[in-house]
Amino acid sequence: MIASIGFLIPSCSRPADSAPDAAASAPIAPVVKVSRQNLANEIEVASEFRPYQEIDIHAKESGYVKQLDIDWGTHVRTGQLMAVLEIPELVEQIDHDKAAEQRSEQDLERAKEELARDKAAYQVAHLTYTRLSGVQKTNPGLVAQEEVDVALGKDEQSNAQVSASLDAVAAADEELAASKATLQKDQALFSYARITAPFDGVVTELDAYTGALLPAGTSSSENGLALCRLSQNDLLRLVIPVPETVVPDIRIGEPVEVRVSALHKRFQGKVTLTSDQIDLETRTMHTEVEVPNPNYVIVPGMYAYVELPVAQDKSALSVPVQAITREGNKAFVYRVNQNNQIELQPVALGLETRSRIQILSGLAEGDQVVVGNTSQLRSGEIVRPKLIELSELEGAS
User: Fold this and answer.
1) How many CB atoms neighbour CB 136 within 10 A?
2) Beta strand extents in 339-397 (DSSP E only)
3) Out of 22-26, 108-112, 372-376, 393-397, least confident range
């Protein structure tokens, strides 16, 4: 409740025939000016802070924890090493792959050497046949047909051998490519022995220690042991069930105030998403508010109250609530005119907040209205207005 702001009544009596004396002895009335301000009506909804994202960190390949660089509450950065696994079977497989790759390289070299020899033999055979065939055409009596036929056979045989050697080189090359691919695959799997952080976060739970066997995360078992639980706490979210009556006033990107009772502080948040659907059982809409938490002051799980603006006017003509007098459904103010006389002025009210009320009609910007206890005032009475600030008015509460 706002304490009453009284009027100072001089002890001396006022002569009826002296206007200056009457003005001087008039009671002092605290007044404020009617002004335009940003008004917003709000509802308060309770919720609990949740991490922006939270996951269990599993191993991609089964192995024993050889090195552990984290503990409960450890803050990690994206890509930071968290643990190293020992995977003996994969080490042996990589050694086998390297040996297979080396063997494939040697096979390819041998195939290339065979191809080179076969090409040389073909060149000799082809040259011999070409010469004998040429001599037979120019001097048929010098070379027997049998010799020409034998040379042709050797030429064709050498050519076929070259083709076979080419196929052997291609096969050896493919085998080498397959060996390299197998090695690269197993080396990629072995790189998973180093478990790194997928995002900036905090280790909120540690489930495995040095020497523990971590199963592969791709296993069909749902009870596979995780290394830890990682939570992104530098940005938190609040899931709010917004009542159906308020849904039309919710805007994506709208700033909101978040009050955390445990910290006795207020934080700035922002509406980031809504489900765009009313839950038929609760008659509420799923709404999320993000709250930056760069210094990790807020801890997930803390209770918070979100103040959602449900109606607002960015340039509302308004007065403090202490200036309004109500009688049933009617409202009026005590306005002080230019002659310092009290006028009982009916007003139409609009948006109402905890400290101010919107004036839809009855007053103009700059008008002076009395605030506080008006029970001693009468319409037409002369007063001495004393302009006070809103801070003074709130200080009397």
Assistant:
1) 16
2) 342-346, 348-352, 356-361, 368-370, 384-387
3) 393-397
- pTM exceeds 0.90: no
226 and 281 Cβ atoms separated by less than 8 Å: no
Half-sphere exposure of 85 (CA within 13 A, CB side): 28
Query: CA nearest 273: which of 253, 246, 292?
Result: 253
Is the distance from CB of 342 to CB of 377 less than 8 angstroms? yes
The amino acid sitting at 254 is E
User: Using CA atoms, how far apart are residues 218 and 239, in angstroms rounded to an integer?
Assistant: 31
**Residue 167 — pLDDT band, cuts 50, 70, 90?**
very high
Contact by Cβ (8 Å): 74, 180: no
Rounded Cα gap, residues 18 and 156, in angstroms: 143
Q: In this structure, which amino acid lies at residue 144? A: A
Encoding tokens for residue 16? Answer: 């009826």
* Sequence-ordered alpha helix ranges (H) in 139-207: 145-191
pLDDT, tens digit, 9 for 90 and up, residues 42-66: 788 899 999 999 999 999 999 999 9
- Please name the residue that has the structure tokens 């809409």: 285
Answer whether 159's CB lies under 8 Å from 122's CB.
Answer: yes
DSSP per residue, 310-355: EEEEEEEEEEEGGG-EEETTEEEEEEE-TTSBEEEEE-EEEEE-SS
Which segment of 1-15, 19-33, 144-158, 337-351 scores lowest on mean pLDDT?
1-15
